[in-house]
Structure prediction request, 80 residues.
Amino acid sequence: MKLDSRKPDVSVPLRLHPLNWSNPLDTSTTGHSTWVQLQECPTPYSHDEALLLCQHSETKWVVWVPDYGEMVLNKDQFYL
Prediction:
């Protein structure tokens, strides 16, 4: 088998943009990370705060929880 080492003819963006950053939780212009308080911890050993990564849909966010990982939460599952 021979590998194709040619560069693709398509350009790949350096950074993929989230679905919707035009909301009050937008961190792209401020440079600050937005941490939210969780109503319930995913596990007894995980933290009770989550870092907002990007908006998944109108009512859901992709978040990162220390000692747990990434997950998708509804807006009503965390406090701003």
